[in-house]
Amino acid sequence: MTQLINALGVWNTSATRHSPIEDVQGIFSGSLVAALGLYVLASAGLLTGSTAGVAFLLHYAFGVNFGLAFFLLNLPFFYLSWKRLGMAFTMKTFIAIGLTSAIADLQSRLFSISSIHPA
Q: Fewer C-beta neighbours within 10 Å, C or N terminus of the chain?
């Protein structure tokens, strides 16, 4: 039973190491889903919290490019993560935020959401 619980990851307290291909797949798919969520929010004219919310405020109020604002607002956090969590984590996060910013900017050119049901 213990082997089954460990295999499923339920109550597993040991860290799981991922291969580089799993890291690439996770970063890409996570960035794609996050950028899609940001695009839906922008299409509806809504806001969210954190650095994405501040980037939306800058975008709505001053017409600043959302992706660039999102990336630049995260720069101080890259420094903090480098100091506390190390270079590997920081580089993966840097790539993920950069990719999310780029995809969020490209989505409006690739497809559009003409209407969103209020419910």
A: C
Asked if 12 and 4 count as a contact pair (C-beta separation under 8 A), the reply is no
Q: How confident is the model at residue 24 (pLDDT cuts 50, 70, 90)?
A: very high
Q: How far apart are CA 105 and CA 119, in angstroms?
A: 26
pTM score, whole prediction: 0.77
What is the distance between the alpha carbons of residues 74 and 97, in angstroms, rounded to a whole number? 8
Q: State how far the Cα of 18 lies from the Cα of 26, in Å rounded to an integer.
A: 10
The two tokens of residue 69 are 């604002």
Interval 75-108: pLDDT, tens: 999 999 999 988 998 999 999 999 999 998 898 7
In degrees and rounded to multiples of 5, residue 14 shows phi and psi of: -85, 145
The residue count of the chain comes to 119
Q: And the tokens for 52?
A: 């994405």
Given a contact cutoff of 8 angstroms between Cβ atoms, the answer to whether 67 and 34 are in contact is no
Paired tokens of 44: 């509806």
Token code pair at residue 53: 């919310």
